[in-house]
Amino acid sequence: MPAPNRRKRKTEKTTQPPPTPPWIIAARAAEDKKALDLRILDLQGLASFTDYFVICSGSNPRQIQAIADEIERRLAEQGRKPLGIEGYEHAEWVLVDYGEFLVHIFSEAARAYYDLERLWRKAKEVTLPPAE
After folding, report:
1. Helix axes 61-77, 22-32, angle to 10 degrees
2. Residue 13 placed within a domain
3. Which of 39, 41, 40, 88 is nearest to 68 (CA)?
4. Judging by DSSP bridges, how do beta strands 101-107 and 52-58 pair with one another?
5. How high is the pLDDT of residue 2?
6. Mean pLDDT by 10 residues, the chain (132 residues)
7. What is the sign, positive or negative, of the torsion defined by CA atoms of 69, 97, 108, 92?
8. In-domain check, residue 11
9. If we measure between CA atoms, which residue out of 59, 64, 122 comes closest to residue 96?
10. What was the pLDDT predicted at 63?
11. d(CA 120, CA 122)
12. Cα separation of 61 and 107, whole Å?
């Protein structure tokens, strides 16, 4: 009878892709609700209060609220809740605060007026990676 093989077997390690960052989940949710002019700004090293801005516009108050609702729903599925939401009732500028990133959903007029992209022009713009 042959001796049993005593060599240790190599265990196969399955590499899983890293989890999707929550600010990308938020941007995808906004995209799915047809947000206009979606931009992501990387504020790391420029601001102490957050790392990213997700900025977009909606064409009317209902769409702005729908974008905010979808972002909140998708991130809740990941176990994340916003620290605060401002401006939801009037839906001119809805700010959803998740700590390490902030979501700004503007009416087109409010976005032009506040012009966050100009104020934070030193921030690097992040390209949203293709959907998986």
Report:
1. 140
2. no
3. 88
4. parallel
5. 59
6. 58 73 97 98 97 98 98 97 98 98 98 97 93 72
7. positive
8. no
9. 64
10. 98
11. 5
12. 7
